[in-house]
Each structure stands twice: as C-alpha cells, then as structure tokens.
C-alpha cells in the first residue's frame, strides 16, 4: 500500500511539474509570436495553455463534488472557460500559469514537509550483527530478541532499544532529537533505537525487539503525521458557500450594467482564490515540517491548529516535570561503616532487581567508580526489596518491617525524607540496620524556564496531575509556581480532571506513562513524552516528543501559534486583495489580462508568505558568542558535579546537632574542604570570567545583578565556616558557643547555594542549551 501511495505521489508530482512547463511554455511562446506580429499563432499558443490548465482544474472540481465539497476551484474553472468564450486568450494563459505555479508551490511545500518524516522511515536499518558463540552473524533486525548482543560498527544505526555493554560509546541522536551533537553513553546506560554510533565499534544488549522499539514507534507516528487537514484549512470550503455566490453576483452585475461579457470574465479572473486554496494549507504543512525537524511529531494539521488555541495546560509530574529517574541525594550511615561501603553493598545486591530504585542505586554506584560484587542467594520480595549474600555478608536493601529496632539516627532520616519528598531505601548488613539511601526524583532543569515560556505564550492555567504522594507533588508545584496540584490520582481521576478543564477552555495534556494514555486521549490536544518509550501514551497522543525534553512542549506551541497566525494572515490578506481587484474589474478598471497578472502577483506573494512557517521566526533567545556558549556549558557541567555534594553541608549541620563531636569535626572538615577547594574557586571564576561576558551579551549589569549579589553572601559564609573550623582545630573540638552560629552558617549556605545554582541554571545556562538546539535544527 505504501509503495502504491509513493508511486501515485511521484506521478502526481511529475504531472504538476509537466503542467507548469506546458503553461509557461505556452505563455512564453505566445508572447514571442505576438512580438513577431503573429497574432493568430500567439492566440493559439495562449489558448493551448488555457486548455492545458482547464482539464486538470475541471478534474479537481469534479473530484471535490464527488466528495461532497463545492470548493472555490469552481471559480477558477469558470474564469478559464470565460476567457476562451470571450477570446481573452492571454488572460486565460496567465490564469493557467497562476494555477500551475500555485500547485507547484504547494507540492514543493508538501515535499519539504514530508522529507523529514520520510527520512525517519528510510533511516531504519534492515540488518544487524549479532554475537553468537563468539562470532558475528548478520541477521535481519526482526530476528533480534531481548538479551541478544549486537555489535555496532562506526556509523551503524542502532536497530533496537538496549543498554551499553563492554565499553562506553558515543552516539549521534539527531535523528530522534533534532540536535546536531553527539552524546557519550557509559556501560549500563540505556540507548534508543534510531541513534547512530558516532564512535568506534561498540556493543549493546537488546532490551526489546526491533518492532517494539522506540524508533519503530516514531516511524509509525511519522507515517500517520499530516494525515488530516486542519480546521483552518477547511475554512476554504466554508468560505466557498458565500464566496462563489458573491463572485457570480458581482460578475453578473458587471455584465448587466455594462453589457460586456469581457468585464464579467475580468471579475472571475481576479476572483480566482489561490490564496484561500493554497496559502492556509501551505502554512499548516510547513508548521508540521518545522515541528518534525526538532523532534516533535504531529499526527495531523488539526492537532497543530488546536495547539495554537490552547489556554490550559494539564501536566503529569513523574517523568514529565521531573526526570522520572530517582537520583541519590544522600547516604546516611550508622556506626562503624562508611558511605562508600553502604552504597557498594546495596548496589551489588540490587544488580539483579529490575525495580526503578534498584536501577538508580546501581547507576549511582557505577558513576562513582565502585567495584560491584556478584550477589549470591538472591531473593526479592515485591514491595519490600532484595536480600542477597555479598562478599560473605547478608545484605538487605529496601523497606524494613515495623518490628525491627531502629537506632536514633533512623528517625532523623525519616524526617528528612518527609521534608524533601524523598524515598528511603534502608540497608541492613548481617541483621543490623547500617545505613539508608535517600533518593529523590529531581525537577527537570528546563522545567521552570518552560513553564515561564508557556505562560508568556498565552497559557492562563497550569494544573499538575500525579499519582504520587501529596508532599513531593506540592513541593514541585510550589517550586514551579503551578496554579493547582492534584496528587494520588488514578488514571480515571486524571480523565475526570482533564474533562473538567476541557469544558472550560481548550486544554492540552502532557504525560509520559501508560497511566497517562486515557487522559491524553481525553484532552483537546495530547502530548506524549514518547522518547521514554511509553507506547500506549504515544498512541493515545496527538503530538509525540521524540526527545526527552520538556522544553519541546513550548517549542511546539510556538510553532503552532506562528503557523496558525501566518495561515490566517495569508488567506485573509490574499482574499481581501482579490475582493478589491474584483471591484476594480467590475467597473472596467482592470482588463482580464491585467487582472490575471495582478492575481498572479497576489497568489505568489501570499503563498511565499505562508512558506515562512518553515522558518524559526523571531527568536527570544539572545545570540551568544561561541566563547560564551562554551563557558556556559563548562560552568553548567561544574554545577552538575557540585550539586551532588551540596548535601555535605547539611550532613555536617545534622552531625553538629548530635552528641558525637568527633563525627561532627570530621563532617565539618569534609564540608570546609568542599567549600574552599570547589565552591569558592567556581564562584570566583564565574565573577571574573562569566559575568562580564554575560553583561556584554545581555546588555548591561542590570541583567545579572540579582544573581551576582549572591556571590558576596556565599563568600562571606564560606569564610565564616572556615574561621569556625580553624577555631575548633585550635581547641581540639567544636566549642558549645560555636554551635549556634555554625548551624546558622551551614543551613544558610546550603539554602543560598541551592537557590543560586537554580537561578543561574534557569536564567543563563539554559541559554547555551537553547541556542545550540535552535542552531542544530536549521
């Protein structure tokens, strides 16, 4: 079926090109004959061009009537017939060229729009190299099963989802994300089908079949994209109900008032409504193309048009506003055990578990370079955790029963978990509660910036729906400034909430999980974070993001609003100019040939204007110098490294509040080294290098003054902590008189650094990321 459709499209494209060649040749040949005083030959050439256009135009009208649509193509056919009837062959030839040019422009826009979608399908590999008994064997991708090891040469496309084994690898993910940059993947990291191996040879272990992989789902969506016409395109059919009678009345009035059929034909000529027929579809299809190039697959022009009218955003939390990947925020240790040992033993036991928390613990241990042991005698209790023997120790990781005795430090862990919205994973070693791992689902770095962009784009209400507990849900809602937060929501509850919002205003729902699929289908527009591989939500959605970036929601809305605005502008201005020309023609101020030429100019202008939807439009992101972009990315990388160590400050404060002064001194020394050797050099480098460059790029010191003021407070608190540590070293322990001020310094420093990091990431570091994405999607 796809082959027949492609063949028909190629034949149609050739017919449109042939029509343009015939009509232009007839017009040019007639002009040449006329210049040689061969009037009869000229009229014959122009008549030939008119008839050449009349035949397909007649078919378009018949085809429309067969589908129950009396479109404005009727006027084009009447004008062609009229020019032949009154002998205005030059006008007929001009109209023929106009129709052929419009159709060719429309076809070019559609081909360009389809090119990115078609390239997804052509990108799919047909074979892969599978390891079998130490040998590589070329097999069809459909033969790949979960657990198979696949070898990828440089430049190979990953045939199915999996994870890296053997050695780290480098991949080009532009086919899925639209970003022209490579990413590094470490051992154990997931890799999606459709990305390209941009480094040397590497190996992956398949986690699913090729047919159920991420890229296969994207290709399926791409084949469905642009399958429907947008409501704004159907305006042409509705306008035809009054435009055709008005045109015929004006034409009849011109004939009756003047007694000249030529004047009536002139009205028909300038009324030929190519702006309405072609400009709106070109703008919408161009918007679809623009969206596909940045990793946003829109199923239909209707979805794009509805997105441009959205007033309310309903959004999931886990995996959408947050990363969906729990991250270790802290390790709390009992007596006679250190944090590295706790993490290594827990990760070793959790290697056999598929639970998302277990995966996070293993990932964290590998990121710290810990050597994991092979667990033995493994048992896993759903809802409780894993028990295994690791290096001769019985290790239990997960929940703990209420009957187990808990040391004093356990109560503070549970209190911190409640305040932070964290999940506690307890670690017992040889029947002793030895430590706890705190894991949080962090807010996406681009979430605050995306929310601000959506509000500035016209979103009046933002509601979060989540099945998570109220505490972490409310905290996320407060940080992002959402209008309403609903926690403990079942899929049916989400559908009810979405219906309620949809009754008040056009509503978009954004989600990523299988449980979001009913709500996505219920919304005016459903957007799925399809890069995470939730097939059910992708199938239920109108729009799918093939890259795991929330900011693409704002990008898609920008494209939708701009495409709709350009479509309305092109159709309105073009039709308005045609109506003005009709009035001139009715009073004999425009001859048919001149009117046809005027209409040609109008049509080409509005169609070219509609093609602007393929471009970026005016960017709200300032142009950054390459050196500043590199600087921003470098400091952003340092932030990511430091963020995990910020809890050292709070851990030191917690230890200081306890009775163990030796532990408190050890924690204070760790924190002071972190502050003096990592934090302060970073802050000073920002003040000396980054901020002056930002002032030049963003236009003055006012643009960074609020964030820059935090540097002096950080410097002051760091110096104060260092002075306390020196005084404690002199005394041999922390003096009771120091405790109050030290606690104030540590907790204050922790809060200031967290806020300062967030301000810089949301205000400045995101600029380099956004600038690179815009540049990479041209």
Description:
With 778 residues, this protein is of the alpha+beta class. It has 26 helices and 22 strands. The strands form 4 sheets. It has a 7-stranded mixed sheet with strand order 10-22-21-20-11-18-19, sandwiched between helices. Helix 3 runs antiparallel to helix 4 and helix 25 packs antiparallel against helix 26. The longest helix has 41 residues. The N terminus and C terminus are likely disordered.
SSE layout and pairing:
Blueprint: H1 2-35, H2 39-66, H3 73-86, H4 89-122, E1 127-132, E2 135-140, E3 149-152, E4 162-165, E5 169-172, H5 174-177, E6 182-185, E7 190-191, E8 196-197, E9 202-206, H6 214-224, H7 231-258, H8 261-271, H9 274-292, E10 296-298, H10 301-307, E11 312-316, H11 317-321, E12 327-333, H12 339-350, H13 356-367, E13 376-381, E14 385-390, E15 393-398, H14 408-420, E16 423-429, E17 432-440, H15 447-456, E18 461-465, H16 470-480, E19 484-486, H17 491-504, E20 507-511, H18 517-522, E21 525-528, H19 535-540, E22 543-545, H20 551-586, H21 592-610, H22 626-643, H23 647-657, H24 661-698, H25 705-731, H26 736-776
Parallel strand pairs: 11-18, 11-20, 18-19, 20-21, 21-22
Antiparallel strand pairs: 1-2, 1-3, 3-9, 4-7, 4-9, 5-6, 5-8, 10-22, 12-17, 13-14, 14-15, 15-16, 16-17
Overall body shape: elongated
Please give the largest β-sheet: 7 strands, mixed
What spatial order of strands do you see in the largest sheet?
10-22-21-20-11-18-19
Figure out the total of helices: 26
- Determine the N-to-C terminus distance: 32 Å
| SS strand fraction | 5-15%
Total E-strand runs = 22
């Amino acid at each position: 079926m796809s082959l027949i459709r492609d063949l028909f499209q190629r034949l149609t494209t050739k017919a449109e090109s042939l029509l343009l060649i015939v009509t232009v040749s007839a017009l040019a040949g007639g002009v040449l004959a006329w210049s040689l005083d061969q009037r009869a030959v000229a009229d014959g050439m122009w008549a030939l061009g008119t008839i050449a256009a009349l035949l397909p135009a007649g078919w378009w009208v018949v085809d429309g009537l067969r589908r129950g649509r009396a479109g404005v193509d009727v006027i084009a056919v009447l004008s062609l017939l009229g020019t032949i009837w009154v002998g205005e062959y030059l006008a007929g030839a001009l109209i023929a060229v106009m129709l052929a040019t419009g159709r060719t422009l429309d076809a070019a826009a559609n081909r360009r729009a389809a090119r990115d979608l078609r390239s997804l399908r052509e990108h799919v590999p047909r074979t892969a190299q599978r390891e079998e008994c130490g040998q590589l064997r070329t097999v069809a991708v459909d033969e790949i099963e979960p657990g198979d090891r696949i070898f990828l040469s440089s430049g190979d496309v990953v045939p199915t989802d999996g994870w890296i084994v053997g050695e780290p690898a480098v991949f080009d993910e532009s086919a899925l994300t639209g970003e022209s940059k490579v990413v590094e993947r470490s051992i154990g990291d997931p890799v999606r089908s459709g990305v390209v191996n941009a480094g040397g040879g590497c190996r992956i272990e398949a986690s699913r079949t090729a047919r159920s992989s991420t890229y296969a789902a994207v290709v399926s969506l791409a084949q469905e994209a642009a399958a429907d016409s947008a409501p704004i395109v159907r305006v042409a059919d509705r306008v035809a109900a009054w435009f055709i009678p008005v045109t015929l009345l004006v034409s009849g009035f011109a004939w009756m008032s003047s007694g000249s059929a030529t004047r009536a034909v002139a009205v028909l000529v300038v009324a030929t409504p190519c702006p309405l027929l072609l400009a709106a579809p070109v703008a919408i299809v161009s918007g679809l193309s623009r969206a596909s190039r940045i990793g946003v697959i829109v199923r239909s022009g209707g979805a794009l048009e509805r997105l441009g009218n959205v007033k309310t955003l309903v959004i999931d939390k886990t995996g959408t506003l947050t990363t969906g990947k729990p991250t270790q925020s802290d390790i709390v240790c009992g007596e006679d055990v250190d944090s590295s040992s706790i993490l290594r033993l827990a990760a070793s036991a959790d290697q056999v578990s598929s639970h998302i928390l277990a995966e996070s613990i293993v990932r964290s241990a590998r990121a710290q370079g810990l050597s994991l042991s092979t667990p033995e005698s493994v048992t896993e209790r759903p809802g409780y955790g894993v028990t295994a023997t690791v290096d001769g120790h019985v290790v239990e990781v997960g929940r703990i029963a209420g009957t187990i005795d808990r040391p004093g430090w356990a109560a503070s862990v549970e209190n911190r978990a409640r305040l932070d919205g964290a999940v506690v994973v307890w670690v017992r070693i040889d029947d002793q509660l030895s430590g706890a791992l705190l894991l949080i689902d962090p807010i996406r770095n681009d979430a605050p910036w995306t929310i601000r962009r959506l509000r500035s784009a016209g979103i009046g209400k933002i509601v979060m729906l989540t099945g998570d507990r109220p505490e972490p849900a409310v905290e996320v809602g407060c940080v992002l400034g959402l209008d309403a937060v609903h926690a403990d929501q079942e899929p049916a509850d989400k559908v009810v909430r979405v219906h309620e919002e949809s009754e008040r205003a056009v509503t978009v729902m954004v989600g990523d999980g299988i449980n979001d699929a009913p709500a996505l289908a219920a919304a005016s527009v459903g957007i799925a974070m399809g890069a995470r591989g939730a097939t059910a939500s992708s199938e239920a959605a109108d729009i799918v993001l093939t890259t795991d970036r929330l900011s693409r929601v704002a990008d898609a809305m920008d494209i939708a609003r701009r495409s709709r605005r350009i479509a309305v502008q092109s159709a309105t201005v073009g039709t308005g100019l045609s109506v003005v020309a009709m009035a001139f023609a009715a009073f004999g101020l425009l001859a048919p040939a001149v009117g046809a030429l005027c209409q040609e100019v109008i049509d080409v202008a509005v169609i070219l204007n509609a093609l602007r939807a393929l471009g970026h439009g005016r960017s709200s992101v300032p142009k950054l110098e390459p050196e500043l972009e590199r600087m921003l990315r470098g400091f952003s990388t340092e932030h990511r490294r430091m963020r995990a160590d910020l809890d050292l400050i709070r851990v030191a404060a917690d230890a200081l509040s306890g009775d163990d002064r030796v532990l408190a001194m050890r924690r204070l020394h760790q924190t002071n080294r972190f502050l003096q050797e990592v934090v302060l050099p970073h802050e000073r480098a920002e003040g000396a290098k980054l901020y002056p460059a930002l002032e030049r790029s963003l236009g003055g010191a006012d643009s960074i003054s609020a964030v820059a003021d935090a540097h002096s407070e950080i410097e002051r608190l760091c110096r104060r902590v260092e002075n306390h540590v020196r005084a404690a070293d002199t005394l041999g322990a922390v003096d009771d008189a120091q405790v109050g001020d030290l606690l104030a310094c540590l907790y204050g420093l922790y809060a200031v650094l967290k806020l300062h990091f967030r301000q810089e990431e949301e205000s400045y570091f995101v600029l380099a990321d956004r600038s690179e994405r815009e540049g990479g999607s041209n």
